[in-house]
Amino acid sequence: MSEKKENLSKLIDFVSELANDTENGWFKVDLINRINHANNHSQPNTNLLDIKKDTSKIVEFLELNPSCSIDYSFIEHKLLRTRLELDNLRMENVRYNLKEKDEMKRLYDFCINAFYQIENLINYYYFEKFPNISDLLTHLESIDNTKFKRQQEKNVGDITISTKIYSFAKTHYNVDQKDFTGMNIDSLRLIRNEGLHRCTRIKNIENENPHLHRFIKYATFDSVHSIVNALTEKIKDLLKK
Fold first, then answer.
1. Angstrom distances, CA of residue 229 to CA of 68, 120, 139, 142, 219
2. Minimal CB count within 10 Å: which of 20, 173, 231, 232?
3. For 8-33, what is each residue's pLDDT tens digit?
């Protein structure tokens, strides 16, 4: 089964689950009406099987993209590329999970899947850029104001993600020029560390963690997606050099 067909199949299952939920009766009716209108004929008794016959219209009407929303084709390692694409699809599925009524939980889950992509992207960058682990450790120790001191690290995975994010941000993003991408990337790491309950509290209490409070308060699905996409493009460009 091709990737596109497999993703469409996942989308059909997702739409079926939504339509079969008794709380989403309006969704099924509206979807049927839109498909009927597009086909220029009336099918008042259309059921879910009829909807499944035209997957392209389902995609069009729901404005969903069954393919990845970020292009990871430049990743040469097939297993890693697949992992990134799956995390991306999971992230986008969270965006359209109408069954989840808690908007904070949806945003939190979206951020978690976004962070998984960030973590793998940064690990990939350092793995490719520094084939010799000793060179990488020397580089990390050279970053201004870093707290990192080498111990017994044998590979990229042995180094904490906080160290790698800090080093990457200090090297490639200039806060003095109002580029806060590095800080936003680290905010997603903090969200992963804090958990849903703490993030909900931080969002509602400004002095709990002022920086993270501002990030969570104003974060949207699109803004979080743009952070991952910007990092992807940055790493793609850096690895060309």
1. 11, 13, 25, 28, 15
2. 20
3. 666 776 677 666 666 666 666 667 66
CA distances from 160 to 100, 126, 155 (A): 33, 12, 11
**Dist CA 190 CA 198 (whole Å):** 10
User: CA 137 to CA 147: how far, in whole Å?
Assistant: 12
> Cα–Cα distance between 45 and 132 in angstroms, integer?
65
What per-residue string of b and e applies to 14-29 under the rule 16 or more CB within 10 Å gives b? bbeebbeeeebeeebe
Name residues whose C-beta falls within 8 Å of residue 33's C-beta, 6 or more positions apart in sequence.
none
CA–CA separation, 221 and 16 (whole Å): 24
| Closest to 89 in 3D by CA, of 4, 25, 172 | 4
Task: Categorize the per-residue pLDDT at 45 as very low, low, confident or very high, splitting at 50, 70 and 90.
Answer: very low
| Residues 176-213 pLDDT 10s | 777 788 899 999 999 999 999 999 999 999 888 898 99
Neighbours of 199 (CB within 10 A): 24
How does the average pLDDT of the chain come out, rounded?
83
Rounded Cα–Cα distance for residues 110 and 156 (Å): 26
Which two three-digit tokens encode residue 73?
A: 């084709």
Q: What is the CA radius of gyration of the chain?
A: 21
Angle at 217 between CA 216 and CA 221, to 5 degrees: 65
Query: How many angstroms separate the CA atoms of 219 and 167, rounded?
Result: 24
Region class of 40: left (phi > 0), else alpha (psi between -120 and 50), else beta: left
Q: Quick one: tokens of 186?
A: 């680290």
The pTM score is: 0.72
